[in-house]
Design goal:
Length: 258
């Protein structure tokens, strides 16, 4: 089994800033409130610990440690708020690296697209449909408008309603990669004036009252709709049947990496 050991090392000005041992030292300081106790906890000498902290403080843009001298609760050493946030970021980066190797054997995940890879690594949403594509057209006024997104199959296009504020906040531009999120109940099983798609029913799962229908586009992209079983029966949907479904532009959420 492929279990790589991730040892994240950060250098500043070509000098060692942090590595796993220094992070362990910082965490021990936060836990014990003492540099000497922290050094003992991770089995290094006090001088080694002192030198490491001294180097970190010299390189860091903000102090990593705060020291209290005497007082009601006695003296001690603790991490600054900046240092606490830094450790959280370090742990997050380490976890992302570990997660990255989990998708190495999944040939369906393109590693040349940062949005798709990142979404596979860590993004979890309640939207049943997560579609990747690129922006092909933006038509908005000062308030709102629409963008046209061509999906990853390079065939299917969807029109998405969006505010001008969101266009600016997401820094949307033509050819930018985006992720479209659509909840299954919001997919309509009929033809309308917007985003009509020819699909084939691939699978129907039901609990009696509700049914989830898996559709497939001619290109192979899958879409999922959740509807009352009575509606599915009324439309006589069955595996292998072709039909038209539609998605209102206002029911599509756009996500991207800024």
């Amino acid at each position: 089994m492929f279990n790589p050991e991730i040892l994240l090392t950060l250098n500043l000005n070509q000098q060692l800033f942090t590595d796993p041992r220094r992070i362990a030292l910082l965490k021990a300081i936060e836990q014990t409130g003492s540099l000497s106790q922290a050094a003992k906890q991770i089995n290094i000498s006090y001088k080694t610990a002192w030198d490491a902290i001294n180097e970190i403080n010299k390189l860091a843009p903000k102090p990593f440690l705060t020291t209290a001298i005497g007082g009601k609760n006695g003296g001690g050493t603790k991490l600054s708020a900046y240092a606490v946030r830094f450790i959280q970021l370090y742990d997050l980066l380490t976890q992302l690296q570990l997660n990255a190797f989990k998708i190495l054997n999944d040939d369906k995940v393109p590693l040349d697209d940062i949005l798709k890879a990142t979404a596979k690594l860590s993004l979890q949403t309640s939207a049943r449909n997560q579609l990747y594509g690129s922006v092909k057209q933006i038509k908005t006024n000062n308030i709102a408008g629409f963008i046209t997104v061509k999906l990853s199959d390079e065939q299917t296009e969807l029109k998405v309603y969006i505010t001008q504020q969101s266009v600016e906040r997401l820094k949307l531009s033509e050819d930018k990669t985006v992720l479209l999120l659509i909840k299954a109940p919001l997919i309509e099983l009929n033809e309308t004036s917007n985003n009509n798609l020819l699909v084939t029913v691939e699978e129907i799962t039901t609990d009696g009252q509700w049914s989830e229908i898996a559709f497939v586009l001619p290109s192979g992209i899958k879409l999922y709709a959740s509807k009352l079983t009575s509606e599915v029966e009324q439309l006589a949907l069955a595996v292998g049947k072709q039909t038209i479904l539609s998605i209102h532009p206002e029911n599509i959420i756009v996500a991207t990496l800024i």
